[in-house]
């Protein structure tokens, strides 16, 4: 019996094999969304826990485990963003960009960071993947379970929300 | 669809965001999470679902309110 079939039948050894095959990829995807190594580790375990619970719904013949795992990881990360909103600082585990800018730019960046954290989670998720991580819209759409056109709409709205927020603070961000 | 945020959407904002939050394309997992996964599986194995507790509480409440139902319940068992 194939690995995926054994997993779907509830074989723990098959699940362990799949876990070891895919944990790095799930972690890498999660950390790019939540930008916190500890949270990404917890989310990797949470993702595989959801995968294990849903194993009977997985069709080994038709299913693409990698895509399925990424979608579950995305949902888990979105749940995390919803719960951790306003409590988690983005990028706290990773070095910030150099701080040698002029004061005005430093102020703009501080407000930008804050405004980004204030985005509704579903917009922050697609904005993070599209604008920061440069993921293709199709990849994001597959992971979130929406159409590429809707991804584009959400990115556009996120940019508009960020710009409005910055403009309301008297800061101008213009298109070049 | 491969198109990206274009100039009209705000190239400057895009650049500022990428500068403020550097991409994490190469972030790597530093340890094996399987032991953590096993602990999670073990913990869930012994967890009693909330609806089981709710059912037990409902039966207990019913028996307290209607003690005469106890013989009927015992008969059914």
Structure description:
- The complex is a heterodimer of chains A (176) and B (77).
- Chain A has helices at 3-8, 12-34, 37-53, 65-84, 103-118, 121-132, 137-144, 148-168.
- Chain A has 176 residues and is mostly helical.
- Chain A folds into two domains: 3-84, RNA polymerase sigma factor, region 2, helix turn helix motif (Rna Polymerase Sigma Factor, Chain: A); 103-168, Arc Repressor Mutant, subunit A (Orthogonal Bundle).
- In chain A, helix 2 (12-34) packs antiparallel against helix 3 (37-53) and helix 6 (121-132) packs across helix 8.
- The radius of gyration of chain A is 19 Å and the shape is elongated.
- With 77 residues, chain B is an all-alpha fold.
- Chain B has a domain at 51-77.
- Chain B is built from four helices and no strands.
- Residues 1-7 of chain B have low confidence and may be disordered.
């Amino acid at each position: 019996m194939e690995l995926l079939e054994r997993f779907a039948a509830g074989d723990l050894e098959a699940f362990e094999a799949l876990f070891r095959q895919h944990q790095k990829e799930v972690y890498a995807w999660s950390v790019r969304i939540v930008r916190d190594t500890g949270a990404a580790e917890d989310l990797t375990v949470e993702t595989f826990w959801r995968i294990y619970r849903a194993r009977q719904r997985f069709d080994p013949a038709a299913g693409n485990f990698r895509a399925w795992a990424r979608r579950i990881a995305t949902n888990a990360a979105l749940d995390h963003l919803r719960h951790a909103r306003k409590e988690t600082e983005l990028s706290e585990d990773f070095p910030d960009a150099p701080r040698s800018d002029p004061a005005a730019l430093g102020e703009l960046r501080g407000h930008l960071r804050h405004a980004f954290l204030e985005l509704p989670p579903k917009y922050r998720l697609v904005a993070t993947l599209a604008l920061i991580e440069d993921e293709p819209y199709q990849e994001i759409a597959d992971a979130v379970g929406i159409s590429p056109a809707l991804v584009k709409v959400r990115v556009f709205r996120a940019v508009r929300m960020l710009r409005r927020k910055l403009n309301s603070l008297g800061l101008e961000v213009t298109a070049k | 669809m491969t198109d990206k945020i274009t100039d009209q959407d705000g190239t400057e904002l895009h650049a500022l965001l990428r500068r403020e939050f550097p991409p994490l394309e190469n972030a790597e997992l530093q340890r094996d999470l399987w032991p953590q996964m096993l602990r999670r599986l073990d913990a869930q194995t012994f967890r009693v679902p909330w609806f089981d507790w709710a059912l037990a509480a409902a039966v207990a409440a019913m028996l307290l309110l209607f003690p005469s139902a106890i013989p009927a319940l015992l008969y059914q068992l």
